[in-house]
Specification:
Length: about 210
């Protein structure tokens, strides 16, 4: 399924995230852990949220830390809702796989979005995001922590939605091949396969050691 088609599916279920029942703390502690690897945001530090959705909860956290905020999503309705919530962010509608990132970033998050990317493009996307980090920049993303690569669709949320994963070893190897460090890996909802990785681009000092 093309990512923009997934975006159209999400257009029909935005109420799942705008409802008072949605847990706005989902992913926050994990992002706080990722931020410890980055340190203090500089005056011109920029953060990108890939698959930013409509809640703005990560923007709130990153904004408090001093980051300039950017987001991209395949769902036009999600972006419209987010824009209404947060006027101090730059938002892009598009497919992250083909979207030309305007510059490099200090912090990139892709929480619960990478798994909608076609299996054949996931490795290239992680490489793209790693290469989009400034020296010392941090990437946090979630994925299906399977042992092997695989893909499927389901209607758990209503519309048919595509999911895929290149597997935990596939993601780790991709990060290493992109000349980044793998700082943290965790099955944070065990026994579910929901997994997140924190990766970091080395600084020149790191490379000299």
């Amino acid at each position: 399924m093309h990512p923009l088609k997934t975006g159209e599916a999400y257009d029909t279920i935005t109420d799942r995230w705008t409802s008072s029942r949605f847990n706005r703390n989902n992913g926050i502690e994990q992002h706080k852990r990722a931020l410890t690897f980055y340190g203090e945001a500089t005056e011109h530090a920029v953060a990108l949220d890939v698959g930013c959705g409509c809640t703005g909860r990560f923007f709130e956290l990153l904004g408090e830390k001093g980051f300039t905020l950017e987001g991209i999503d395949a769902s036009k309705k999600m972006l419209k809702l987010l824009e209404a919530r947060n006027q101090e962010c730059t938002l892009y509608h598009g497919d992250i796989c083909t979207f030309t990132l305007p510059h490099k970033y200090d912090f990139i998050t892709a929480w619960d979005s990478i798994w909608h990317v076609p299996l054949s493009q996931q490795g290239a996307l992680i490489t793209k995001l790693c290469h989009a980090l400034k020296p010392g920049g941090v990437l946090i993303f979630t994925f299906g922590g399977t042992e092997k690569a695989g893909e499927h669709t389901n209607r758990t949320m209503g519309p048919e939605v595509y999911y895929a994963s290149i597997g935990i070893n596939g993601f780790i190897q991709t990060i290493l091949d992109a000349d980044c460090y793998c700082r943290h890996v965790e099955y944070d909802q065990h026994p579910e396969l929901h997994t997140y990785i924190i990766a970091q681009r080395p600084t020149p000092t790191d490379c000299d050691d």
